[in-house]
């Protein structure tokens, strides 16, 4: 959980959160996944399937963001 999420859970807004309330909504919220226990070895016949799935998912998400940007002319 991010610090920002923890702060929201406490029910008390910080000055930064109050400023965020006045901003336009985010187009997307990108969160990174820790791949510390994933590995990639070029000599393998098959790679870590979860790592490959993660790469495929982020590529799909980025394409979706680009599609929305084009549709809304952002």
TrEMBL record:
One of its GO terms (biological process) is inositol phosphate biosynthetic process. Residues 1-24 are annotated as: Disordered. Keywords: Kinase, Transferase. It comes from the Eukaryota. One of its GO terms (molecular function) is kinase activity. Gene3D superfamilies: Inositol polyphosphate kinase. Residues 1-14 have a biased composition (Basic and acidic residues). Transmembrane segments: none annotated. Belongs to the inositol phosphokinase (IPK) family. This is Kinase. It comes from Rhizopus microsporus var. microsporus.
């Amino acid at each position: 959980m991010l610090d920002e999420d923890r702060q929201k859970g406490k029910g008390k807004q910080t000055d930064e959160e109050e400023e965020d309330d006045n901003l336009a909504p985010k187009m997307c919220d990108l969160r990174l996944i820790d791949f510390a226990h994933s590995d990639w070895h070029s000599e393998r016949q098959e790679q870590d399937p979860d790592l490959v799935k993660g790469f495929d998912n982020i590529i799909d998400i980025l394409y979706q963001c680009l599609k929305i940007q084009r549709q809304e002319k952002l």
